[in-house]
Write a structure and sequence with these properties.
With 61 residues, the protein is α+β, with helices and mostly antiparallel strands. It has a single domain (7-60), classed as Alpha-Beta Plaits. The chain is built from two helices and two strands; from the N terminus they run H-E-E-H. The chain has helices at residues 7-23, 50-60, and strands spanning 27-33, 38-43. A two-stranded antiparallel ribbon has the order 1-2. Helix 1 (7-23) crosses helix 2. The radius of gyration is 12 Å and the shape is elongated.
Length: 61
Amino acid sequence: MKKVLGGQVGIRVRELIREICKRNNVEIIRGHLSRDHVYLFVSVPPHLAISKLVLNSIYRL
């Protein structure tokens, strides 16, 4: 299987995730980029629906 999230793509994905989380006051507790997906454990403010955060992240990436 080809490593899709490696190299420069992985670096950019990390930057975007950090930017999106910072903009939404979301704390990243743990995170990991695998070869084809992202693991995130985050603390989300109560006023923000997780589904909205995920959709914003997908559209931004």
